[in-house]
Design goal:
79% of the residues lie in helices and 0% in strands. It is built from one helix and no strands. The protein is rod-shaped.
C-alpha cells in the first residue's frame, strides 16, 4: 500500500483541475445568481 499516498495526491489534483475548469465555465456564462 505504498502507492496509496501517490494515488490520493493524484486524485486531489484531478478534483482541483476539474474545479478550476468549472469556475472558468461559470465565468464565461456570467454569474447566473
Amino acid at each position: 500500500m505504498r502507492n496509496h499516498g501517490f494515488f490520493f495526491i493524484l486524485h486531489m489534483l484531478l478534483i482541483m483541475i476539474q474545479w478550476e475548469e468549472l469556475k472558468k465555465r461559470v465565468k464565461k456564462k456570467g454569474c447566473m445568481e
